[in-house]
Write a structure and sequence with these properties.
- Strand 7 (176-177) and strand 8 form a beta hairpin.
- Helix content is 34%, strand content 17%.
- The protein is globular, with a radius of gyration of 17 Å.
- It has a single domain (7-12, 28-279), classed as Aldolase class I (TIM Barrel, Alpha-Beta Barrel), CATH 3.20.20.70.
- It contains 9 helices and 13 strands.
- It has helices at 7-10, 37-54, 80-94, 105-112, 128-136, 154-163, 189-193, 224-233, 263-279, and strands at residues 26-30, 58-61, 98-101, 117-120, 140-144, 169-173, 176-177, 183-184, 199-202, 208-209, 218-219, 238-244, 258-259.
- This is 3-deoxy-8-phosphooctulonate synthase.
- It comes from Patiriisocius marinus.
- InterPro entries: Aldolase_TIM (IPR013785), DAHP1/KDSA (IPR006218), KDO8P_synthase (IPR006269).
- Residues 16-268 form the DAHP synthetase I/KDSA domain.
Length: 280
């Protein structure tokens, strides 16, 4: 059986988390970036309606700032404090935990005042000061596997969290660089990394097509269901999905986001697959 940790153990201590008794996968989902209060609230409300119906533990995701952009004129955010306050409002309005990514050690304590999970971007997961600062806040630290790293190498990132005095680490696989402009997911990595920490599969970023000549990242959203199903079948504890009401006009990563109109059908199918895995 591939499930080595119960959902309750994995999510222990996260405020406002629901449905931990269902032995379901958990979900981190929301827009790539906080574009404004209305869009964040609408997306949160829609996803909460679906996850409550299906009994899925849910954490709202939104980046308060996008630091890793291909071009200097790419959208980076609406202002740090403004976006962080929106994340807090989502949490207080809907009684749901939230997650955002941080990019420098100095941001950890600031962001921790507003969200429940701090995410370390894949390009930065080897930055010791950043990982340690996140761990020292006492929040869950979601470590994204570097596109350039093996699954086995992630044990050292998890150990940094532990050495900083915390046992609250997750690993998120977001694909591995394949050539210059594509990503692949090696599903052997999921059971490997589950030896070190609970594992999340980032479905949407795994389908990015980076380094395009136009300076705007591409993607293959038509493959989202395929990657997500395989992730649940191979034992992922959680899924990470960026979603939007209008991906084509999203200000960040629209090319690989899931249209929110397709989310309920996808999650319904995934819950059924998870049940089969639970029964093995």
């Amino acid at each position: 059986m591939l499930l080595t940790k119960t959902t309750t153990m994995t999510l222990a201590g996260i405020p406002n988390i629901k449905h931990t008794d269902k032995n379901n996968f958990f979900l981190l989902a929301g827009p790539c970036a906080i574009e404004g209060e209305d869009m964040a609230m609408r997306i949160a409300e829609k996803v909460i309606t679906i996850t409550d119906k299906l009994g899925i533990p849910y954490i709202f995701k939104g980046s308060y700032r996008k630091a890793n952009r291909s071009r200097i004129d790419s959208f980076t955010g609406i202002g740090d404090e403004k976006a962080l306050k929106i994340l807090r409002k989502v949490s207080e309005t809907f009684h749901v935990p939230t997650v955002t990514d941080i990019h420098e050690a100095s941001e950890a304590a600031i962001a921790a005042q507003y969200v429940d999970v701090l995410q370390i971007p894949a390009f930065l997961v080897r930055q010791t000061d950043l990982v340690v600062a996140a761990a020292q806040t006492g929040k869950v630290v979601n470590l994204k596997k570097g596109q350039f790293m093996s699954p086995e190498a992630m044990q050292h990132a998890v150990q940094k969290v532990k050495d900083a005095g915390s046992d609250k680490a997750w690993i998120t696989d977001r694909g591995t660089m394949f050539g210059y402009q594509d990503m692949i997911v090696d599903f052997r990595g999921i059971p490997t990394m589950k030896q070190y920490a609970p594992v999340v599969l980032d479905v949407t970023h795994s389908l990015q097509q980076p380094n395009q000549s136009v300076g705007v990242t591409g993607g293959r959203p038509e493959m989202i269901a395929t990657i997500a199903r395989a992730g649940i079948a191979t034992g992922a504890d959680g899924l990470f999905i960026e979603t939007h009401f209008d991906p084509a006009n999203a200000k960040s990563d629209g090319a690989n986001m899931l249209d929110i109109a397709k989310l309920e059908k996808l999650l319904t199918d995934l819950v059924a697959i998870r049940q089969v895995v639970n029964d093995l």
